[in-house]
Inverse folding.
């Protein structure tokens, strides 16, 4: 079959046709298109590509729209919050760079901490404390996660009633996160490029050279680029007195210790706020006998416990914390589970077992959606659609598609790497990027490629040297955007967490790459670049917790795993559950990376109940998602949702369509 000549409707008629579909499907399609129009932000998730990838995006939007600057906050050993970003509070918490060394002013890390305040003050009976969240990575910004999703996560975990009519047992939570040491707004920050312009040049070169497997010489180029970045990064930071030792202290172990500091300082802050509220109450009522507020908000010095929801790499951080400090576990949800064995010991071969099945599912959903719901539809079922995809991938490897420029962008070419990149996005987030991928595939099949070129253009942000950068010189504050340092910050964590993970020759790496490709032909090339980023990495962690990575925690952990997860297969969660007695695994019967990629009222309510009461779901619980890719409904129950469930599902949809990409 000549796939390029297949008769398919064009973009605009296709959208007009979709307007005739039922209301739920129309809403989903509109949300999908809206996301497509605005997709440009590219953060990290579990094991992101360390030295290639889509070009970095602009600074986080909230900061650019306000006058707030992190540099205005003086770091403190207590949580001293300042209003920031409109509706949030920010602090810079000083913690030791080296927990084994004496406290010195030159040996400190200032963690950027952000809080979305609870709907009630700490003095209120319904105040449930702080829930720490982590987006994954490593290298993901907790600050960005709270700014993007803090209010939405509150709506998931808070009691569903308003504070005015909540029952005595209902709770409302602060949502808190932080940029881990070396990352984004925490200082000192790891940066291996003298300015944003140099970084963008590097990324443009990476894009032009393509992914591993994009050419016969891709490994030869990739190997040398990885060595150049690793060697240059470690040697430059070694020669910078302000950051000379940070690379030895950014692995997961000290970050878990930082979480202890955060919950302890939060307890101290809570007590201070409670005392002020008690004094105000006593003054207003001219009484001094009632000490309820002080009792409720008392700082449990040295005994504060963690409430936490970690995703992807955040599960590795949470499991490490639970292993190091089992007595401090209060409520810990670990979603999209990383195996501590494979991660810490290498060689990172326990991630891609279910990945190819996700791509098969996407094409099966495409078939179920039919030609009106999936532009890349072909007669013959999901296998026929996948065959068309594989043929297109093969053809474009030999013959990339040239695309003429227009009034919005310049000329472009669509390559094998471009298709693999959008495929990766669809594998991570099938519900959102599955429909986008097939529209772009059909755009190539039609022989134009203009939509794909527009998509690529939206991922690029110009990075010019400012006048102040030129005056102040390389690596100065005006030359570097901290939120752009994901590449080297991620390498610094990954390559020091697993001892010796970067010790391999080019030939040994080639064998490793082939092993990953045998595990997953759809993502093996991309995933191999994770470890390639450690080639030549010269730094070692000064403090590494060596286990055991198991414990009897003071409250059982809730694990969550998708039936088919892109890079953290369900078997990881099943294994990790056995290492923490009493913990429970909730399986969400969906595809993609972490449960929020497929909205499920069942999962959300289980998480809410766990944070509200500590009650775990029954062993063997299987939660269905409420919506599948291409707007397919899982059950007719959507039509009968009450107002509260409808509102919660809308919140879950908002989270799903704004999850950062790897």
């Amino acid at each position: 079959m000549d796939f390029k000549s297949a008769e398919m409707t064009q973009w605009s008629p296709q959208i007009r046709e979709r307007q005739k579909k039922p209301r739920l499907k129309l809403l989903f399609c509109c949300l999908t298109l809206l996301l497509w129009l605005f997709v440009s932000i590219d953060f990290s998730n579990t094991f992101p590509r360390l030295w290639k990838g889509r070009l970095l995006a602009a600074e986080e939007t909230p900061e650019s729209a306000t006058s707030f600057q992190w540099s205005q906050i003086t770091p403190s050993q207590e949580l001293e919050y300042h209003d920031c970003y409109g509706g949030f509070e920010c602090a810079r918490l000083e913690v030791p760079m080296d927990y084994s060394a004496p406290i010195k002013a030159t040996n400190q890390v200032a963690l950027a901490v952000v809080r979305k305040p609870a709907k009630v003050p700490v003095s209120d009976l319904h105040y449930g404390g702080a829930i720490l969240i982590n987006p994954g990575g490593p290298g993901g910004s907790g600050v960005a996660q709270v700014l993007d999703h803090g209010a939405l996560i509150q709506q998931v975990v808070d009691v569903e009633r308003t504070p005015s009519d909540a029952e005595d047992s209902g709770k409302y939570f602060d949502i808190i996160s932080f940029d881990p040491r070396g990352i984004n707004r925490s200082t000192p920050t790891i940066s291996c490029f003298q300015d944003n312009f140099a970084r963008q040049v590097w990324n443009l070169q990476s894009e032009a050279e393509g992914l591993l497997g994009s050419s016969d010489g891709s490994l030869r180029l990739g190997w040398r680029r990885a060595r150049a970045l690793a060697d240059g990064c470690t040697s430059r930071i070694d020669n910078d007195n302000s950051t000379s030792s940070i690379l030895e202290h950014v692995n997961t172990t000290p970050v878990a210790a930082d979480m202890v500091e955060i919950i302890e300082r939060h307890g101290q802050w809570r007590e201070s706020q409670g005392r002020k509220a008690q004094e105000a109450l006593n003054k207003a009522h001219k009484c001094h006998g009632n000490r309820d507020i002080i009792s409720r908000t008392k700082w449990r010095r040295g005994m504060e416990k963690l409430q936490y929801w970690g995703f992807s790499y955040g599960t590795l951080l949470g499991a490490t914390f639970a292993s190091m400090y089992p007595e401090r576990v209060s409520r810990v949800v670990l979603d999209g589970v990383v195996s501590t064995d494979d991660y810490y010991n290498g060689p990172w071969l326990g991630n891609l077992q279910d990945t190819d099945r996700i791509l098969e599912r996407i094409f099966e959903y495409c078939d179920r959606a039919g030609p009106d719901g999936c532009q890349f539809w072909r007669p013959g079922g999901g296998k026929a659609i996948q065959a068309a995809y594989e043929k297109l991938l093969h053809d474009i490897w030999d013959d990339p598609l040239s695309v003429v420029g227009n009034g919005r962008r310049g000329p472009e070419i669509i390559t094998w790497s471009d298709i693999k990149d959008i495929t990766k996005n669809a594998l991570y987030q099938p519900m959102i990027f599955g429909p986008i991928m097939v529209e772009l595939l059909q755009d190539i099949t039609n022989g134009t490629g203009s939509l794909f070129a527009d998509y690529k253009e939206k991922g690029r942000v110009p990075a010019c040297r400012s006048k102040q950068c030129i005056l102040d010189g390389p690596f100065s504050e005006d030359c570097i955007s901290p939120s752009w340092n994901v590449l080297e910050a991620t390498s610094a964590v990954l390559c020091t967490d697993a001892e010796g993970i970067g010790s391999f020759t080019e030939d040994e790496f080639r064998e490793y790459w082939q092993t990953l490709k045998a595990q997953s032909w759809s993502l093996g090339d991309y995933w191999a670049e994770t470890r390639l980023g450690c080639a030549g990495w010269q730094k070692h962690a000064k403090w590494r917790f060596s286990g055991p990575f198991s414990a009897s925690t003071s409250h059982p952990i809730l694990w969550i795993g998708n039936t088919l997860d892109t890079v953290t297969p369900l078997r990881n969660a099943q294994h990790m559950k056995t290492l923490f007695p009493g913990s429970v695994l909730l399986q969400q019967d969906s595809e993609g990376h972490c449960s929020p990629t497929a909205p499920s009222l069942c999962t959300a309510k289980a998480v809410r109940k766990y944070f509200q009461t500590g009650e775990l779901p029954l062993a063997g619980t299987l939660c269905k998602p409420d919506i599948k890719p291409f707007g397919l409904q899982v059950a007719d129950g959507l039509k009968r949702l009450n107002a509260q469930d409808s509102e919660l599902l809308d919140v879950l949809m908002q989270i799903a369509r704004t999850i950062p990409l790897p």
